[in-house]
Amino acid sequence: MEILKDLTTQTIIERGKKVVMNTYGRLPMTIVKGTGSWVWDSDGKQYLDFVTGLAVNSLGHSHPAIVRAVQEQAKKILHTSNIYWIPNQVDLAERLVQNSFADKVFFCNSGAEANEAAFKLARKYAKKHYGANKHEVVTLENSFHGRTLATLTLTGQTKYQEGYDPLPVGFAYAALNDIEDLRSKVNQNTAAVFIEPIQGEGGVIPASIEFLQAARALCNEFGALLIFDEVQCGVGRTGKLFAYEWSGVAPDIMTLAKALGGGVPIGAMLAIDKVAAAFQPGDHASTFGGNPLATAVGCAVLDVMLEEGFMPGVQERAAEFRKGLEQLAQKYQTGDPVRGQGFMLGWPVSKLGPEIVEACLQKGLLINCVGGKILRFLPPLNVKASEMDQALGILDEVLKTIWN
Ligand SMILES: Cc1ncc(COP(=O)(O)O)c(C=O)c1O
After folding, report:
1. Pocket around ligand 1: residues whose beta carbon is below 6 Å from it?
2. Of 42, 26, 47, whose CA–CA distance to 380 is shortest?
3. Residues 79-128: pLDDT tens digits?
4. How far apart are CA 158 and CA 147, in angstroms?
5. 340 CB contacts (<8 Å, ≥6 apart)?
């Protein structure tokens, strides 16, 4: 069996097109190696990585704590079933509970699965406590919650839903940061309200504190559960361990994935005790969920992020980087302001977004574009000041030639 090693990017792409399903609009490149904020393609070219696997490699690539956790766990045991207790899973759940609003954790393998679990728990809880009619879910326009049938229905963007109907029923969509619209959609049949504290795929758009407070009040009034999807904005991305901490509004359920495993697949659904109690043995499960490898790495990731000074450092560097982006936005008069929180930043640049991404790629900087016109920056949380300067320098050079 020939191994895809030491082949040119072109050969890999040609072979891939023959055997890998065509579900992604991929850039014509591969990434085969990484260390810190840097990655290399299979032709040996080096790039500064401000995409981090879409907010996954938040401690950069080959972080020693993650490498150690993988190696040590691989030598002990990789997987056991959830029909037994898994010590690493308990360790990770304790870390999450001790550092959040939550009391209990369910582990799975991805963001979509975490949201699917949250959706199922909310319906189970609502039916148990309020009866069969309380099954509706309010979610937001422009949101993104995953690609399973339930989570793409939660996703308030029809482009992800087309061709998959009939979809699950009982969903209403409200406009982000429109309190009146949200109020008109929540009623006594609402089981849950799903919100990303910062919409990621929708264009890096933060929910306002007033909107989150209003959502909390409405959920309290109607006995609905407030669910925050922190799959992208959670686990340190915004400069606090969880994005909701910036607002002071705590949800009843929160979903995590991406950065929690630092590159090893993991998802988690956290809930307060009263809500978590709606799940009993047999109600929900996942073969791989919270297995010894994934949870060993999850513990390693959180241990680094919980070190004293780590989050203030993220906040400081992110503020510096944001200032740099704002200066460029000012210099080139790009229009709408840079937005987001911490190292989850969006820069509206009109329809030139994809061209800017392509030009940055040529110059060795990986960034990404959402909605065709918002540049999205998701650098490693431990990126160096000199690397941020390099990224800003490349952006300046690119805009000099592309803008106007
Ligand atoms: C906010 C949010 N929720 C859910 C998901 C789905 O996560 P996954 O692709 O791991 O299923 C994503 C993925 O981008 C996301 O950004």
Report:
1. 54, 110-112, 115, 144-146, 196, 200-201, 229, 231-232, 257
2. 47
3. 999 999 999 999 999 999 999 999 999 999 999 999 999 999 999 999 99
4. 12
5. 198, 204, 206, 238, 322, 346
**CA 275 to centroid of ligand 1, rounded, Å:** 23
Residue 246 C-alpha from the chain's centroid: 17
Quote the ligand 1 centre to 11 CA distance (angstroms).
30
Residue of 258, 264, 288, 370 with the most ligand 1 atoms within 8 Å of its CB, for mutation:
258
Dist CA 26 CA 20 (whole Å): 12
Positions of the chain with pLDDT under 70: 1-6
Q: Are 195 and 242 a contacting pair, CB within 8 Å?
A: no
Q: What is the pLDDT of residue 6?
A: 56
Contact 107, 295 (CB under 8 A): yes
Q: Which atom of ligand 1 is nearest to the CA of 115?
A: 4
| Cβ contact 180:314 at 8 Å | no
* Atom 4 of ligand 1, residue of closest alpha carbon: 145
As to burial, measured by CB atoms within 10 angstroms (0-12 exposed, 13-18 middle, 19+ buried), residue 375 is buried
Amino acid at 11: T
Q: Are 108 and 268 in contact (CB under 8 A)?
A: yes
> Cβ(164)–Cβ(149) under 8 Å?
yes
Closest C-alpha residue for ligand 1 atom 3: 145
CATH code: domain 9-62+309-402 is: 3.90.1150.10
Which residue's entry shows tokens 């758009």?
205
Q: How many Å apart are CA 308 and CA 265, to the nearest integer?
A: 26
Classify domain 64-305 by CATH number: 3.40.640.10
Domain boundaries, the chain: 9-62+309-402, 64-305
* Strand residues in 1-141 grouped as ranges (E): 33-35, 38-40, 46-49, 104-108, 136-140
Chain CA centroid to CA 361, Å: 22
- Pocket probe for ligand 1: among 142, 205, 227, 231, the residue whose CB has the most ligand atoms within 8 Å is 231
* Residue type present at position 399: L
